[in-house]
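Hi team,

Filling in the usual template for the complex we talked about on Friday. All components are listed, including any nucleic acid strands or ligand strings, so the model treats them as one assembly.

SUBMITTER: L.P.
PURPOSE: interface mapping
COMPONENTS: two
RESIDUES: 635
SEQUENCES:
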Amino acid sequence: LSPAKLRLVLAFALAFSLLTLFEVVTQREDWPLSCYPMYSKLVRHRVVTRAVLVGVSEQGEFALMDDQTSPYSGARLLSLSRQLAKQPARARQFVRVLGARYERKRLREQWPVLQAVRSYSEKWVARPGLAGIEKPARSLDQAMYVPPPALLERLQAEEAGHAAPLRPVSAPPGDRVVELDAASCDDGCSPAADPQASGGSALSLEGGNRAGSITTRLRLERGRYAFLFRMKVRSIANFDRVFLELDGRRVATSAGLGNYLEALPYAGWLWASQRPGVTPLVLDVETDGEHALTLSTGSKVLVDQLWLSRSVRELPVDNAARQP
Amino acid sequence: VKAFLELCSKAFVEPWLRPADPRALAACRLILFGLAWPGFRFGSQAAFAEFEGTTWRAIGIPSVLHVPLFGPDALRAIGVGVTLATGLSLFGLGYRFAAPLAALLKLYSSWVGQSAGKINHGSLLFTLVLFVIAFSHASDAWSVDALVRRLRRRPQPERSAEYGWPVRFIALMVVTMYGAAGLTKLIQSGPAWAFSDNLRTLFLAHHFTHHPPTQLGVWLADYPTLCRVLAFLSLCLELTSPLALFSRYYYRIVLPSLAALQLMIWLTLGVLFREMAVVFACLLPWGALIERLDSLTSTWQPAWRRWRATG
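RESULT (copied from the run log):
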């Protein structure tokens, strides 16, 4: 080893050490240099949080495999989902690209149609002996909707006016499908012909200054029902929010139902509930007998069917009408 | 003071001049490029191109230098380049060109992955260590280049400091990294990092967020004082690790202790820094092991020949 080479080698070694020291003193991370901050922050609280990411198909939630989220997986994906929880616009962009990549592999791998990615926080208070670790408290952080490509195509075709009406799809046994007709109309409501509506007609709610509403009475057994309704906005400039009352009591949050235009900005028919990506609203019917369901809105929308389901867990990925 | 500085300087420089066996460095080449070789998967980084502007954002020095993120096809080509160059470096064929190219391409593809939302500190050092081995004479033994040299009846390499400095450089990088990690803990958390329930909570918390292979952390968490002692010892070890560069004896204590610390991190917290395990493997006393093997060979070879001669 010549003296000149030794000097060169030592100079590089010294440079590496000094640059790393600079990173430490300034607490910077200038990749590939670093101050190596792993586990340097004090863990002050005993409440431990972990992020859980799941995919959503028509059948319900499923654990996402690395292949389905590649190139993001493991710690990188969880770290990213924590960052994205604070940046909804960026989260939407991310899920759009992820969904497109998923869809390209879906048929080959026989994966279900992906309609959302949900991020949950699970919390556990760290206790000796890992007491209670198997039952952490779970809360939904965010639901990122991934528009199924077939649905997008269908909505675009409907909006352009060249979609052929779809044949109704059978609802699962035990479900209630309510065809809305003029008898259900309250104020600000009128029947309207629409070739894509179930049976060729729907109820049109006026919106604007004259809030419209629909009330239908039906016999229901006590129990829990997923509530969905088939709706369409007259124009994407309209609002898409609809409110529901069960026996005169408002159900659901202040955000109401519908809320899909941000994710699906099309004037086409859709199965709606709370909002895309989120589980449908669950109606808790406490007694057997006749119940009144009232839909009201200040938006200009069309509604043709209500669907109360015992078995549906998620929104359907198609927009065809249902038949009992 | 001057005499002390001279002593330190001598203690620091002397190990860099110690002659080493070319085969010991060849062992490091095999270990490092063995891990760096990605197999025949070329497209793993190409997918990141689709996320540019959303979740892929250039980080670090390359971003300051405006290094671009290439398109999927170019990234796939770089993937092929990494496979070829690391493969050639592993087998020691055209090493002087292949190894620096492998280190450079690996640096780029590592940067592409690390710019995607999370820095993997475990692989950071490995990427830089590849440059050290790439610019050394690590293919002078156990390589295709060495075989060609032998066939051409060129003189065989002998023990030299040329084969020792890369390992010393790697050791310097390792202790610098741990020293930095220790200092950062002190800066960010102060002595409370060791003298609070920090490590104890970490032991428990990681059973919720990771998958530790043992229940050792849960058992340790039952003894808060022991957890504080362990935290204090590991902090001291990290902070004093750079001193190993000045003392041969401390080097022999610190490096195995750091490797043990890394092993404990895996066993108790379930965090496996695979690349660091490989870097530590380079610091094993390969020269001494090879010498021992040589002496064993020289013992049994004549006996083997005699046994064969007598049928």
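MY TAKE: Chain B has a mean pLDDT of 94. Chain B is about 70% helix and 0% strand.

Thanks, L.
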